[in-house]
Every structure is written in structure tokens, then in C-alpha cells.
Design goal:
Pfam families: T2SSE
Oligomer: single chain
Family: Belongs to the GSP E family.
Distance between the termini: 63 Å
Strand content: 15-25%
Number of strands: 13
Largest sheet: 7 strands, mixed
InterPro entries: P-loop_NTPase, T2SS/T4SS_dom, T4SS_GSP_E_ATPase
Shape: globular
Helix content: 25-40%
GO molecular function: ATP hydrolysis activity
Protein name: Flp pilus assembly complex ATPase component TadA
Amino acid sequence: MIKLALMANVVLDSLLKPLEEFYKPSFVEEIAINHEGEVWMRLHGARVPWVAYNAEVLSKQYLIDLIHTIANIYERPFDPVHGMPVVYATLPGNHRFTAIAGPNVQYDERDITGGVALNIRGTSAPETSFENYHLKRGEKLLKVKPRESVRPDDPYDRLMTAINDGSPILISGATATGKTTFLNHMLTLIDKNSRVITVEDAREISVPQANHVHLILSRTEQTNDFNYARLLDLVVRMTPDVIIGGEISTDNASVLWEMLGTGHDHFYTTIHAENAEAAYAAFADRILHTQPAYDRSDLIAEMKKKIRVVQLSRDGALRAVTEVV
């Protein structure tokens, strides 16, 4: 048994060699691979947090083999098509490993049969103290990225303030009012250096930021063990700067609401509703479908504190923003 464990470690060490130069340096906080041939490095204290490097050695087959090997060594289930497509592990040196492969991840049109995405967190960090976190005796705590408590009178300014301060935004409207198109335009206003994770049941969102991963959880064609609860765990481990939640349904509403409570800025999603008030109510009702213990009135009140709603309406060829709350 000991000999088998040693052999497994030798195999893993050999397989990790192409990646070690990226995640082991002390100045690296984390690496992310969204598709073959490219690695993103998140650097400690850098002005531009994510930096991309080409790495042809990181082929799709290499990445799939790596995930399979780690799953086998750590006795984790891994079957992207019919079982569990996600693997979590702690690599030698206490590096946290998160990976997904198969039809639930699609970077772009190259991922015809499904893609691969993974994150490895480093363990090295600069020397720190409470003062590095601006915690000092007798001094007030800092407010980091505080959101505006007063909403501007002008609806355009209200929307831009929400985008700039990272407030969650719910885009509401009937079918064909242009919700996805509006959301795609909003993404062009987000920092191009942001890391964007989308969660959809079919690929619709167009992300201009280069550092992005598209996670797919189909309502009709799901064949493996991936579900919305597992999706939540995965998304928060992939270090997103922006989360796009796709369209709210009874299946995903409670998980999307939980994502809102994870502390991430720039959370955007859409819903079918005829006005802003109805949008809050529809979101709450979809949550209650799977989480009936919530109090509906309290839930709606909490939503109104946290979420901005942009209402879109249509009359023939005319499409317009009719509410920004």
C-alpha cells in the first residue's frame, strides 16, 4: 500500500511539472485555466490582478489526463458525461485544486464536446499583520467599495452607479424585450481585466472580457450528476469578479439567491416580469418553490435592499427601459 502511494505521488509530481512554474512562485496567488493553451495568473498585490500567458503544453488532453489522475489518486468520482464532472483536491504543498470538464463548461465554439476549466490556489503570501488589513487600535474600520445609499434621481445615473459600485442587477422584461442583448451591452462597461463566470442553460451571453468561463446546466439535456447546489460550490471556488446568473427559474432561483450572499460584486441575472415590483415577487416565488421556509414578505424586502431592477418593455419594434429602481 505504501509503495502504491509513493508511485502515485511520483506520477502526480511528473504530471504537474508543466503547471508548477505558474502556481508555485511566491508572487502568485492563484492560476486559472479556462481552456487549452492558456493560463491566467493572479498576482499578489498587482494593479492588474490577472495576467495571461500562452502555454501550448497545456493541451486539452493533458488537462483531462491531469484531472483523471488527481481524481484517481484522491479517490474522487470523475465522469463528465454520466457522473460527476467536478473534482476538488489539495495538491502537494497544500495547493487547492478545483476543476471541471465536459459538456457543463464551454469557453467558445471550440468546445464542441465540452471544455475544461481549473483553478489552483497558491500557498505563498506576502508577510502580513493586522495593519496590512487596516485594523488598528482606536481607528475606524475602512469601508471598502461602499455602495451608494442614495440613488440618483436620473435613471441613467442610477444604472451607471449600480454598475460602477458592483450592485447586483436584475434585468426584467417579457419575452423578446431584449434582456440578453441589454445584459451583453452592460458587460462592455465592466473592467476588461475582470474575470467573468456565466451560468446558463444554453450559451447566450457574449462576454468581451478575455478571462471568462461559461458554465452550462441544461434544463432538458442534463445527463450527469452536476446540479445547482454543486454549481454554487464551483463558482465561488473559481474566483469570479463578475457572475452572470442567466435567466431565473424555479430550478435555479434559490442557488442564485445564495450566490448573492457570497460577497461577490457584479452579479447580474434576468427574469420574466411585467414591472419591477413583479420582478421582486417573481424572484421570491421561484425561491419559495424549493425553499418554502422563507417568509415571502421578508424575502422581498431583503431583495429590495440588495438588488437593483432594470425593467424592459416592448411595443412592436419599440424596446425601452421603463424602470430603474
